[in-house]
Amino acid sequence: MIEPLLSIRNLEKRYNATDPPALNGVNMDVSKGEVVVIIGASGSGKSTLLRCINRLIEPTAGEIYFEGLNVLDPSYDVNHLREQIGMVFQNFNLFTHLKVLQNITLGLIKVKKMSKDEAEKIAYETLRMVDLEDKADSYPAQLSGGQAQRVGIARALAMNPKLMLFDEPTSALDPELVGGIIQIMEDLAKRQMTMVVVTHEMGFAKEAADRVVYVDGGAIVEEGSPEEVLTNPKHERTKQFLSRIL
Amino acid sequence: MANPIIDFFAAVINGFRNVFDFLGTFSTNSWFLLIDNWDVFLNALRTTLEICIFSMLFGFIIGVIAALMKLSSNKVIRVPSVLYVEILRGTPLLVQILFMSFAYPTLVQQLFSVTLVEGTWTNPTARWDAIIVLSLNTGAYQAEIIRAGISSIPKGQLEAARAIGLSYPEAMAYVILPQAFRVITPPLANEFINLVLNSSLVSVIAVSDLTQTGRIISSRTFRTLETWTIVGLFYFSITLTLSRVLQYVEKRYRIPGLGIQKEESF
Ligand SMILES: Nc1ncnc2c1ncn2[C@@H]1O[C@H](COP(=O)(O)OP(=O)(O)OP(=O)(O)O)[C@@H](O)[C@H]1O
Ligand SMILES: [Mg+2]
Q1: What is d(CA A139, CA B258) in angstroms, rounded to the nearest whole number?
Q2: What's the gap in Å between A167 CA and the centre of ligand 2?
Q3: Are strands A219-224 and A211-216 parallel, antiparallel or unpaired?
Q4: Hey, which CATH number is domain B40-252, 3.40.30.10, 2.60.40.10, 1.10.150.240, 1.10.3720.10?
Q5: Which positions in chain B have a beta carbon within 8 angstroms of at least one beta carbon in chain A?
Q6: What is the per-residue pLDDT across A50-102, written as a single tens digit (0 to 9) for each?
Q7: What letter would DSSP give residue B81?
Q8: What's the whole-model pTM score?
């Protein structure tokens, strides 16, 4: 049996001892090349789950294995983990003080220890993929939302990650800009990028997802192929959620 | 007979005569005391500049360190920094200067039985006393400015920096601080100017800065008006230059989306 790229076991996260846990025993496997879409209501724990994967949030219990290694082990280098996992944020989070090109080269130079020339070569290649070469010299504040998110994706992609995490990458965008980002993500999926995507874009889920996971109250309630979960949900809560967003 | 209108005009004329008399002093040789004492003033200017530049530099380094310590989640690191900032900002600078110069040597003597030279007219270390106190003082104010600057940077910036694999110190150095410094240039410039003005207080521990020199020259020449006008102009030229330079720096390193965005007005 091929071991999954990412394996999550009984993951629990409590922000406060008094509050109910934000994650309550999540189990999930992601194989190489797989696209997993996570859906769920606001506050259900989607972002928390995603952020535990690259340890932006420290889980309070459970295990996460990346390539078979327990990343929560104190001896595991968290920066090395993050180097291999790209993350795309809802609000882009581009480095405000750096031009587009430097936003992309920073990680290559400081984390991957590349020379400036090497890094810029890769940065231009990645920018070409998202069709933004002409914006290399702009500052983030000079970009539209759609352009900024394309840079956000390019910044993550340039690191040549084994896994990409997307946290609602289109929900801060004007409706007419959503399509461009979805298109880039679908292309990535076609090129066998492993992706875990939190999104409410059901079009993307139907088109690109291998698996859809419905999260409620910090736990996975239902999962399966897009057809199974989106068109024939078994659970009452999934039905209610889908009827609200469709 | 008292006539208010005539009284009024008399007062006005009298006032004008005083102004002319005052302006007249410029043509007499009393203002030459600047030229006569040029070397002394220049030395004093150099001392003041030296003290200010060193204090600014040390204060900035202290400020950055104290700000980062203040932001630490570890109490053992945070508390000393909080105490330092609160104490230095909660006591008068003059008291701090006097403490450093007079009380501190006594303290050292009583604790370690080592005799330090006390702050007197002949104290060769007075200048360093001044630099140390001013550095510690401005460091506390700068720490607060820098901390506020760092806190003003959206949380997402640190997350994005960590997410690409930068360590916390790297994220601070390459992402957070470069942004914070741009945001805080105006308040930091303000603090630099305050430092120059505050530096005149070190004259009480016999550092031959501009103020101390003014005191010596005015008591020697009895030309108080001229002396203190000249001393004031020296300070004014320092602060004016400083604020212009910092304005230039702010403009030069301004980045769209960071710091004060000047409207296209006037
Ligand atoms: N930093 C935090 N401190 C305390 N509680 C938090 C924190 N972040 C999230 N929570 C809580 O954890 C729960 C899950 O939050 P999370 O952000 O993961 O939800 P989400 O599914 O991403 O929601 P949304 O769709 O609104 O982004 C919520 O109840 C939230 O209030
Ligand atoms: Mg969320």
Answers
A1: 10
A2: 7
A3: antiparallel
A4: 1.10.3720.10
A5: 154, 156-157, 159-167, 170, 174-175, 178-179, 182, 255-258
A6: 999 999 999 999 999 999 999 999 999 999 999 999 999 999 999 999 999 99
A7: H
A8: 0.85
